[in-house]
């Protein structure tokens, strides 16, 4: 089932561009252009997440947020604002916003923050240990046994994220955030380097991988079944 996202944004070009990007990521998107229509749309659509602009016709975004929380609605809300004022940010968070992003922003950062918000709401449990390819990972002790090459702590943490989503595509930006945090200086190339190290430790041929598969332009997938 697709993740339902409600985008409350009155700038047509921005709304169109954001909705196209979210749909490309597999979201089911509804766009509302007026603040006084937003609460009704939340009740009708029951979205998994709301991206809410502050400056809206009909009713300001912060008033919409106040109405939702006063009614006991706990839907995750990420607030957008053309005003990067710290006061706006504090008020939004105090009213119950789950995250806040000032305009202008990079679309990739917005996508990453929405994914992070959804994971916080329904996080997948991280495993304590894993044996794959004859290599034993102890994620509690951040230790490994049977590896064919040395691994760093961050290599092991990357494997832990992949293990939590075994059989699923994990995007590189999500790995960066899980391991290092969204504000980290780590790059997508850093993730690639960790995967290279993991493949060496597992003895997994990068040209014909059995365990760690590359999804070109997206991220990595740890195979669901290990017959090594």
Please describe the structure with a list of short key phrases separated by commas or semicolons.
alpha/beta, Rossmann fold, Arc Repressor Mutant, subunit A, 2 domains, five-stranded parallel beta sheet, 8 helices, 40% helix, 20% strand, elongated
How is this fold's topology laid out?
Layout: E1 4-8, H1 12-24, E2 28-32, H2 38-45, E3 49-53, H3 61-70, E4 77-81, H4 86-94, E5 99-102, H5 107-121, E6 129-132, E7 135-138, E8 143-145, H6 153-164, E9 170-171, H7 172-180, H8 188-202, E10 212-215, E11 219-222
Parallel strand pairs: 1-2, 1-3, 3-4, 4-5
Antiparallel strand pairs: 6-7, 7-8, 9-11, 10-11
Structure overview:
There is one protein chain. This protein has helices at 12-24, 38-45, 61-70, 86-94, 107-121, 153-164, 172-180, 188-202, and strands at residues 4-8, 28-32, 49-53, 77-81, 99-102, 129-132, 135-138, 143-145, 170-171, 212-215, 219-222. The chain is an alpha/beta fold and 228 residues long. The protein has 2 domains: 4-121, 3-Layer(aba) Sandwich (Rossmann fold), CATH 3.40.50.2300; 129-222, Winged helix-like DNA-binding domain superfamily/Winged helix DNA-binding domain (Arc Repressor Mutant, subunit A, Orthogonal Bundle), CATH 1.10.10.10. The strands form 3 sheets. It has a 5-stranded parallel sheet with strand order 2-1-3-4-5, with helices on both faces. A hairpin with a 4-residue loop joins strand 7 and strand 8. The longest helix is centred in the middle third of the chain and has 15 residues, at 107-121. The mean pLDDT is 89.
């Amino acid at each position: 089932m697709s993740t339902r996202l409600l985008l409350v944004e009155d700038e047509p070009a921005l709304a169109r561009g954001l909705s196209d990007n979210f749909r490309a990521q597999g979201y089911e998107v509804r766009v509302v252009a007026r603040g006084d229509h937003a609460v009704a749309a939340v009740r009708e659509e029951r979205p998994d997440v709301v991206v809410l602009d502050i400056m809206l016709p009909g009713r300001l975004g912060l008033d919409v947020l106040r109405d939702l929380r006063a009614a006991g609605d706990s839907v995750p809300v990420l607030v957008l604002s053309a005003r990067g004022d710290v006061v706006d940010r504090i008020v939004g968070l105090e009213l119950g916003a789950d995250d806040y992003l000032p305009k202008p922003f990079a679309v990739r950062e917005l996508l990453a923050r929405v994914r992070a918000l959804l994971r916080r709401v329904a996080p997948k449990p991280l495993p304590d240990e894993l044996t794959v390819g004859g290599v034993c990972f102890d994620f509690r002790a951040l230790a490994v046994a049977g590896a064919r090459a040395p691994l760093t702590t961050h290599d092991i943490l990357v494997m832990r994220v992949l293990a939590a989503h075994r059989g699923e595509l994990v995007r590189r930006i999500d790995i960066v955030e899980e391991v290092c945090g969204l504000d980290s200086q780590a790059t997508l190339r850093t993730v690639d380097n960790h995967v290279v190290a993991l493949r060496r430790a597992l003895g997994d041929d990068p040209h014909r991988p059995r365990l760690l598969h590359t999804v070109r332009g997206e991220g990595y997938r740890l195979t669901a079944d290990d017959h090594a």
